[in-house]
C-alpha cells in the first residue's frame, strides 16, 4: 500500500492547516479518521470472508476425499464378506452329511441327556435361618469398637 513517513504526514498536515484553516481542521481530521477506520474494518471483513471461503473450499475438498476413502473401505469389506460367504457356502455344500445315528453317539453307546449337576442351583442352601442366628447370638451386623463398648457397658447407678 501507500507508505507514509513522518515527513509526508507533516507536509500533508501543514497543507491541510493552510487550506482548511485552524477552526475546521479538528473536525475534518476526526471525520477523516472515522472514514479511514471504516475503510480498515471493511478491508478486514473482506479478508476474513475470503479466508472463510478458502477454508470452506478446503473443507469440502477434504470431505470429498474422506467420502471416497470410506466408499473404498466399504467396497473392500463387502467384497471380503461376499468372498467369505461364498467360501463357507462352498465348504458347506461340499461336506458330506453324516448319517443319523438315532441317538447313538458312535453307533454303540447311547448319548446321555444333559442334566445340570445341581437340581436347584439358584437356591441358597447353606444360609443359616434368621431365627437361628437371633436365638444363638450370631452377629449379623458388624459393630464398631465404640458401639460394642457402649452396648456392653454396665448401666450407671444413680446414687
TrEMBL record:
Pfam families: TatA_B_E
Predominant place of localization: membrane
Gene3D superfamilies: 1.20.5.3310
GO molecular function, one term: protein transmembrane transporter activity
Topology within the bilayer: Single-pass membrane protein
Comp. bias regions, Basic residues: 150-159
GO biological process, one term: protein transport by the Tat complex
Region span, Disordered: 135-159
NCBIfam families: tatB
Cited function: Part of the twin-arginine translocation (Tat) system that transports large folded proteins containing a characteristic twin-arginine motif in their signal peptide across membranes. Together with TatC, TatB is part of a receptor directly interacting with Tat signal peptides. TatB may form an oligomeric binding site that transiently accommodates folded Tat precursor proteins before their translocation.
PANTHER family: SEC-INDEPENDENT PROTEIN TRANSLOCASE PROTEIN TATA, CHLOROPLASTIC
Record text on subunit structure and interactions: The Tat system comprises two distinct complexes: a TatABC complex, containing multiple copies of TatA, TatB and TatC subunits, and a separate TatA complex, containing only TatA subunits. Substrates initially bind to the TatABC complex, which probably triggers association of the separate TatA complex to form the active translocon.
Name of protein: Sec-independent protein translocase protein TatB
